[in-house]
Design brief:
Blueprint (H helix, E strand, L loop, with lengths): L1 H10 L4 H11 L5 H9 L3 H18 L3 H6 L5 H14 L2 H10 L5 H12 L7 H10 L3 H14 L8 H14 L3 H11 L5 H10 L6 H15 L4 H11 L5 H17 L35
Helix pairs in contact: 1-2, 2-4, 3-4, 4-6, 6-7, 6-8, 7-8, 8-10, 9-10, 9-11, 10-11, 10-12, 11-12, 12-14, 13-14, 14-15, 14-16, 15-16
Length: about 300
């Protein structure tokens, strides 16, 4: 069936899209070798169906090697399509190939590569995107890279909060437009550390960014208040009278959580430091507010 479908895709323009869709669902990795030459000579109207067929094949077979191998020698327009395929499928081979394409001399190829890296499924390209954002003179590339940094920071679970804060700070310095700065503040709000919360509060001084910065600070505070009660309570009290309803609601909700955590946390398991009677024997053991068994 697949050879017949390929023949239809190559020879019958009126059924090409349907044939390519079926090829993508039924073919194996070897079929990529037939589709790649078709992509090289495709019209604009055929590029989309060919890209989708390659994405389906690579995703189902678990390899992007044929597409990655074809990328360096392809014409620029074809490279843009190949990059779109690699970016959609992802994986180590795809990432290596797209990273190389991000340094291509042709503007359209570089932009396609940075766009693909910015939409990557994991945080693998984060450092490259930050480098582009801080070094490029191309305004379009900078915007794409900054948006990519904002999108990938929450996915970078292998990096410490300190490193992530450093990345976001550098990106904020590089950003020129409020849109990218607001996106980066949203990313900042996912970093669970007191320095990150303090950094978000500093951006509240900018009236254009004040609400986004306050929201980021509250999001962080909601995750760290047990370890930093005084600082997070001060933030919540500052924002409980905010003219922005969403900020008021979050601040009040945080104050309620803090008030419940301000004593001992009911329902947790605790040890008895005196080794004689249970702590709080009249009402059962209670756990310390930091949720750390070592301090119970």
């Amino acid at each position: 069936a697949v050879p017949a479908l390929l023949t239809l895709a190559e020879s019958k323009a009126e059924v090409r899209a349907d044939a390519l869709d079926a090829v993508g669902q039924l073919g194996d990795a070897d079929v990529c070798e037939r589709l790649l030459p078709m992509l090289a000579g495709a019209t604009n109207g055929d590029r989309g169906p060919l890209e989708q067929a390659l994405i389906a094949l690579c995703s189902r077979t678990g390899t992007t090697k044929p597409v990655a191998a074809a990328l360096p020698g392809a014409a620029d327009l074809c490279k843009v399509s190949l990059i779109a395929v690699l970016g959609s499928v992802g994986g180590a081979d795809a990432l290596e190939a797209v990273r190389a394409a991000a340094k291509a001399p042709a503007d359209e190829v570089r932009r396609a590569a940075i766009k693909a890296l910015a939409g990557w499924a994991d945080a693998g390209p984060l450092d490259e995107l930050l480098a582009v954002a801080t070094e490029t003179k191309d305004a379009t590339l900078k915007v794409l890279a900054l948006r990519g940094v904002a999108r990938l920071v929450p996915l970078a679970g292998d990096k410490s909060p300190e490193k992530l804060l450093e990345l976001v700070t550098q990106a904020m310095t590089a950003a020129d437009r409020p849109d990218e700065k607001k996106a980066l503040l949203s990313a900042l709000g996912t970093i669970p550390s007191l320095p990150a919360m303090n950094s978000a509060q500093e951006y509240q001084q900018d009236p254009v960014l004040a609400d986004e910065a306050a929201l980021a600070a509250l999001q962080i505070a909601d995750r760290i208040f047990r370890q930093h009660l005084p600082e997070t309570e001060a933030l919540a009290r500052q924002l409980q009278d905010s003219p922005t309803p969403a900020l008021r609601e979050r601040a009040v909700a945080l104050l309620l959580k803090i008030s419940k955590a301000d004593n001992l946390a009911f329902g947790a398991t605790a040890t008895s430091p005196d080794g004689i009677d249970k702590d709080g024997a009249s009402s059962g053991d209670q756990a310390a507010i930091d949720d750390d068994p070592a301090t119970y």
